[in-house]
Amino acid sequence: MSKEISTIAKNIKKYRAKIGISQDKLSKFAGITLHTITKIESVATPDPRIETMAKIAKGLDVSIDDLVR
Q1: Cβ-count burial 49-64 (b if 16+ within 10 Å, e if not)
Q2: What is the structure's pLDDT at 16?
Q3: 49: which of 8, 22, 36, 40 is 20 to 30 A away, CA to CA?
Q4: What distance in Å separates the CA atoms of residue 66 and residue 3, rounded to the nearest whole number?
Q5: Is 4 exposed, middle or buried (0-12, 13-18, 19+ CB in 10 A)?
Q6: Based on C-alpha coordinates, what's the Rg of the chain?
Q7: Has this prediction a pTM greater than 0.85?
Q8: What pLDDT score was predicted for residue 6?
Q9: CA separation (Å) from 25 to 2, 4, 69?
């Protein structure tokens, strides 16, 4: 299986960069662990749960649709 970066991972990184926050800061904003953020961005968890996606979207102040498109 290819380690191709998923759309979700790319978009999380893009929106984090846009607002200038680290993975650690996003984990605090989203109320999830840093480990979860790093696993999603490194594609170790390519399809995160919808609950996790909702928390990340809220932490980034974007919609879930913004993360999956």
Answers
A1: eeeebebbbebbebee
A2: 97
A3: 22
A4: 22
A5: exposed
A6: 11
A7: yes
A8: 86
A9: 29, 25, 23
CA atoms within 13 A on the CB side of 12: 31
Mean pLDDT calculated for residue range 53-69: 95
**Rounded mean pLDDT, 45-56:** 93
**Residue ranges per structural domain of the chain:** 7-68
**Greatest Cα-to-Cα distance within the chain, rounded to the nearest angstrom:** 32
Compute CA 25 distance to the chain's CA centroid, rounded to the nearest angstrom. 12
pLDDT tens track for 3-35: 456 899 999 999 999 999 999 999 999 999 999
Structure tokens at 41: 């961005």
State both tokens at 28.
């605090």
- Tally of residues, the chain: 69
Structure tokens at 4: 């191709």
